[in-house]
Design goal:
7-stranded mixed β-sheet; binds S-adenosylmethionine; Rossmann fold; alpha/beta; 281 residues
Length: 281
């Protein structure tokens, strides 16, 4: 511990509760944005250590300092396992972090389906990576409810990344069985889906429930995990879904320049701690 006495308190304090008596807090040196959209409360604060922090309905979504853990781990495991991904669907992901990672690959097109245009607008203003990605000619931005989109589209995809927020507000439907049932409509035979699945420490019950219905829909259902410093419990679960491709059947190499992901991390991520493994059934 540095033992340094914190400077005199000149900031707003943002608190995210993970239980009624514990959570995470940030001293905000600046409140950069705070408004309700028709879908959710959107805030951006500046924090001395984490830089800019995007908060939706009081829950941390992404921070400049640690965004790479989550965004790399939602994207690169599926790209390492897919033989030749050409078309990608991202559902949610309005902050652009997942899009940034997908565009590192020579894909032909990426469809980003985000329900809230205000998240796009705010993220373009405060998170430097989004604008260049939206200008990339391979990116197609669709403002729609992801649940409706997959029920109506006649497009099919090699890879789908479900970058939803927690199951609150507009995101609830993205965590339900119907959504995944419908997703199979727009998913190619050797397609792969990666979805964020919550905190193994705090949300194991909902992960177990999700595991139950996913196993009835997909032949291959593999949870994996990664540290995400600013998420509840500091460790986050993801799920790899396919009918044909196994996650440890590695087919390629990740791009240069990643800050967290590499093939060893890939293999380790699918080895689960006992409480998580035992808690799935
Ligand atoms: N990495 C974050 C996490 O794990 O909590 C999620 C990041 S991203 C900001 C989540 C995005 O999903 C938000 O921009 C939100 O507006 C969007 N979203 C929520 N429900 C949606 C829906 N039904 N269809 C499409 N986008 C949705």
């Amino acid at each position: 511990m540095s033992g340094k006495k914190p400077r005199e308190d000149v900031s707003i304090e943002f608190k995210e509760y993970h239980t009624p008596s514990s959570g995470i807090f940030f001293k905000a040196s600046k409140q950069l944005y705070k408004q309700d959209s028709p879908y959710q409360k959107i805030e951006v604060i500046e924090n001395e250590h984490f830089g800019r922090v995007l908060i939706l309905d009081g829950l941390v979504q992404t921070t400049e300092k640690d965004e790479f853990f989550y965004h790399e781990m939602l994207v690169h495991p599926v790209f390492l396992s897919h033989p030749e991904p050409r078309s990608v669907l991202i559902i949610g992901g309005g902050d652009g972090g997942v899009l940034k990672e997908v565009l590192r690959y020579p894909v032909e097109n990426v469809c980003l389906v985000e329900i809230d245009p205000q998240v796009i607008k705010v993220s373009q203003e405060y998170f430097p990576w989004l604008s260049p990605c939206l200008k990339d000619e391979r990116t197609e931005l669709i403002i729609a409810d992801g649940t409706e989109f997959i029920g109506q589209t006649n497009k099919t995809f090699d890879i789908v990344c479900v970058d939803s927020s927690e199951p609150v507000g507009p995101s609830v439907s993205l965590h339900e069985e119907d959504f995944y049932q419908n997703m199979k409509r727009c998913f190619r035979e050797d397609g792969i889906i990666a979805a964020q699945a919550g905190s193994p420490f705090y949300h194991l019950d909902s992960i177990r429930k999700k595991n139950g219905f996913l196993k009835s829909l997909f032949k291959i259902v593999n949870f994996y995990s990664s540290p995400v410093p600013t998420y509840p419990g500091g460790n986050w679960a993801f799920v790899f879904l396919s009918d044909k491709v196994h996650p440890l059947d590695i087919k390629g190499n990740p791009p240069e320049g990643l800050k967290y992901f590499n093939p060893d991390i890939h293999r380790a991520a699918f080895s689960l701690p006992n409480f998580f493994k035992d808690g799935l059934d």
